[in-house]
Amino acid sequence: MPALLSCEITNPPVCLPLIAQRAEILLRLQDHPESELSILLVDDRHMARLNESYRKKKGATNVLAFAMQEAEEFPVAPVILGDIVISLDTAADEARRDGTTLHRRVTKLLIHGLLHLLGYDHEQSEAAAIVMAEKEEKLFQQLELEERRGKMIHLAVNVDHVATLRQARGIEDPDPVTAAAICELAGAQGIVVHLREDRRHIQDRDVHLLRQTVKTKLNLEMAASPEIIAIALELKPDMITLVPEKRLELTTEGGLNVTGQKKKLAEVVSTMNKAGIPVSLFIDPDSRQIKAAKEIGATFVEIHTGRYCDARTDKDRETEYVLIAAAAEEAFESGLRVNAGHGLNYTNTQRIAALETIEELSIGHAVMARAIMVGLDRAVREMHALILKARG
Ligand code: PXP
């Protein structure tokens, strides 16, 4: 057990297994997966005694680090690194002062102590203090990403084609609003609809009713056009996904050209963010588009899986898969949240769902096509089960 955590406080206000797990992730991130570290959580009285004995200072402090070896150099793994002592009383005061949670504060103190054990020292010089502060921040962000990786995989069902069938007859049935409720009852964690400028399937009435009835998450797919932007701002969906839209296409073809219209898209992202609506950009698995999406402040990207799904040979499919996996990794590492979709069906979805950087799949046509044969409830349940199995 590389990180050994003990706590002297009865009923501590922190989750000890979580702190121990974070310590192990931090050791791994610092290339010390096998090194040993002991962490002790104490109260202010105990901390004051340690502070007096070892540093000749009065009163408690937040964290003390006792290195096993007084290393000038950064210790090479594996090694016994030493002890980190954290005062939960002081950490709690600091958390209140900073408006943060006790877990976040304790984690930051843990990182601070660990960096001391690894040879960083902010007391050496101003430059050393800057290096250590930057390293602390970076490690904290890396930890957050590691904790998010592989955590969840959601199925969001696109109900556009229920509306397509309705519009074919120009009557009221079938209703995408009813379909959305059935999808949610079957386990879908999100509902997606594309309000197209030509209103070929989803209508304004649908999005308004869905806004009132969707219990999970309503993702409005849309073009960055003034009319639809105004509707989105009034509707306030849980998120929007910006897609390119051509009147003659059968379905969305290709991802957004973010690099080519950065200024325009940045304005839309900013307007939506001010209204509290997170924005996803539907993009091809292309590093330039990911960088541009990050630069203009998008919260999510949705990686276009169409070329992978449409590939006719194993070799082409493999090539496209590798592109998607790399793009998802790059986007995730940059801090973007990653969704994927288009063309996913009951045979090609599991490989994509297994990618730990992806948190949501948006699937429409395949689920609706199966629903005609086996019913919507079963079609959604089967797809959901496939995805969860892929993630293990
Ligand atoms: N994601 C986006 C951005 C889309 O435009 C679509 C199609 O509406 C989908 C996902 C779902 O694609 P499919 O219907 O092929 O599952």
Would you kindly provide a written description of the structure presented here, covering whatever features stand out?
This protein has 392 residues and is α/β, with parallel strands linked by helices. It has 2 domains: 3-148, Metalloproteases ("zincins"), catalytic domain (Collagenase (Catalytic Domain), 3-Layer(aba) Sandwich), CATH 3.40.390.30; 154-390, Aldolase class I (TIM Barrel, Alpha-Beta Barrel). 49% of the residues lie in helices and 16% in strands. The protein is built from 16 helices and 12 strands. It has helices at 16-29, 44-55, 88-98, 102-117, 126-148, 160-169, 176-185, 204-213, 226-235, 262-274, 287-295, 306-310, 314-333, 349-353, 365-374, 376-391; strands at 3-7, 36-42, 63-67, 80-87, 154-158, 190-194, 218-222, 239-242, 279-283, 300-304, 337-341, 360-363. An 8-stranded parallel barrel has the order 5-6-7-8-9-10-11-12, surrounded by 8 helices. Strand 11, helix 14 and strand 12 (360-363) form a beta-alpha-beta unit. Helix 1 (16-29) crosses helix 5 (126-148) and helix 3 (88-98) packs across helix 4 (102-117). The longest helix is centred in the middle third of the chain and has 23 residues, at 126-148. The protein starts with a strand and ends with a helix. The site of pyridoxine-5'-phosphate has 19 residues, from strand 12 and helix 15. Pyridoxine-5'-phosphate is lined by residues 158, 160, 194, 221, 241, 243, 251-252, 282, 302, 341-344, 362-366.
